[in-house]
Amino acid sequence: MSAHQTVNIVMIEDDEGHARLIEKNIRRAGVNNPIRHFMEGTAAIQYLFDAPDGPAKNGPALVLLDLNLPDMSGIDILQKMKAQGSALRRTPVVVLTTTDDKVEIERCYDLGANVYITKPVNYETFAQAIRQLGLFLSVIQVPEPELD
Amino acid sequence: MMRSQRRANRAIFLAVAAGFVMLAVAAAAVVWAFQRAQDYSELVAHTIEVEAAVADLNRLNERIETARRGYLLEGDPRFLDTFEATAAEIPGQIQRIAELTADNPEQVKRITDFRGLTDQYLGLMRESIADKQAGGSGVKGASLLDEEDIQVVQRLRDLADEMSLEERRLLIARESDEKRSVYLSTVIAVAAAVTLILVALGTIWATRRTLRALASTGQQLQNLNEDLESAVLERTAELQRANAEIQRFAYIVSHDLRSPLVNVMGFTAELDAAIKPLGELIDKAEEAAPEIVTDETRYAVREDLPEAIGFIRTSTEKMDRLINAILRLSREGRRVLAPEAVDMNALVSSIVDSLQHRIDELGITVEAEPVPTVVTDRLAVEQVLSNLVENAIKYLKPGRPGRITVRGRKNAGRVLIEVEDNGRGIDPKDHERIFDLFRRSGTQDQPGEGIGLAHVRALAYRLGGTISCESALDEGATFRLSLPTALAPQQGSNT
Fold first, then answer.
1. B369 in Cβ contact with B403 (< 8 Å)
2. Does the keyword Nucleotide-binding apply (chain B) (predicted)?
3. Chain B residues with CB inside 8 Å of A120's CB?
4. Does residue B356 sit in helix, strand or coil?
5. B261 to chain A, minimum CA–CA distance in Å?
6. Complex ipTM, two decimals?
7. Statement: residue B363 has pLDDT above 70
8. CA–CA separation, B481 vs B414, rounded Å?
9. Which structural domain range is residue A62 located in?
């Protein structure tokens, strides 16, 4: 595909406040890509894999993933996305969560997470981290999903 | 039950004692009976001796009579020789009997009579011999049978018989005495033996019963012990489960508390950011239309909002530190300890080195005395000691040159490590409190959340140790860490 498609940002985050803060700071970093926000895992998975306008069927995407979700762990979503034969195997996943447990971080990277960011409570640090993430989003090349 | 047991024991003791007394009685009876038997045989021998002596005397009397008659009939002087020889023996023989029967007054009287009669008899016989020698017949009457001496001889014989009879009678009397006493002692011995056997049987029975009771008590004790052990294991497992539960709870709670805190902080920052345009708006409004800006609005934007935001921020920051402390404690509690031989001297000097900058700055003297090697978790014990040393540095008494001593010694399977300072000290009423989470003591002039010592105590407990404090205000403090010499390795992780 030669036409450059817009990269959709899929944010899976159960805390509305966090989601809002993340979005604000991403926008402040000058990233204008569309952001789809999901508050629970089931809807997010459905959109990721099955929705006609979702990443698996349509265009590249980047996933911001929180690990503490009401209906499942973010790790389950990560596992599903990075599984052998998954259409979203190459889709970058940024894990953005409050856990800074070493074991948890290692596990995410082992499963194929591309970036792991701990949400700092100090807002300046947090805002800065998100803005940097925004800058990162504006420069990275996201691969097309493998359409079957 | 105890009392009946004691009574039974006393009964057994008394029975055994009685048994020994019976044994002694039986032995005494046997000895006594034996002695009586010996006495008796001596008496029999005595009687036989007396009888034999009497018989000898009779024989001598017969012989002397025969010699005299022979001489009277034939006039052969050889009969006279025999006569004289026999006459010489007789007094000795009488004397012998007298000695043998000296204890019996009747016999003594008889022997005296005997002696008199013998003298008379011998005199009569000598008269007749002298008569024969002078040429007479030697016989006064018509026949020898009419002679006076016949009567004398008859009386002598009677006396001898009496003496023999008397001895026999005595023997018989003594024999019956003997028999009675032997019978008595036999009865005593038999009774003692029977009692002894009964006591022995009773004692054996009681001993067996006691032994059986002892064995069953031992068995019970062992069962109880095993029960206790399994109860302890069960309780330990329960405690470990409860502890793991608390750790998990602390982890989840503190973790979930952070999420809303991120929002509070984030939106506070947003508010803070909003103050700037608002302030500019107020400025502009004051310039363009001062009448629309009330004092209230001005204060709200310039004073109240920044102040409120400042308080929210410091409070949330503090809350974040507290949550982090809980998180750290719970994480520490879930870490698997790896015991190894830790060279405590090297550890102490590395802690001192890492704090050297502040030590020099404050002019503190640090003395590291030898500390025995401990098998324990290096990281945990390092955290404990460095926390204690840091506290010692932190809470010095202003104006007094600081002096910190670290020392250690072995004590009954444990190692005691002391960190002593001459700092501002801790009020004795706070000695327990300082180890509680978020609790502090004394003037709050140093930064901190009251986490360090709580952490120290949690770590000390995990290492199987204890920590205590000894101090008075203004007189320095000594923190005493007691660790097992060797920490048992842990199995698996509970994370």
1. no
2. no
3. 262
4. helix
5. 7
6. 0.72
7. yes
8. 10
9. 8-138
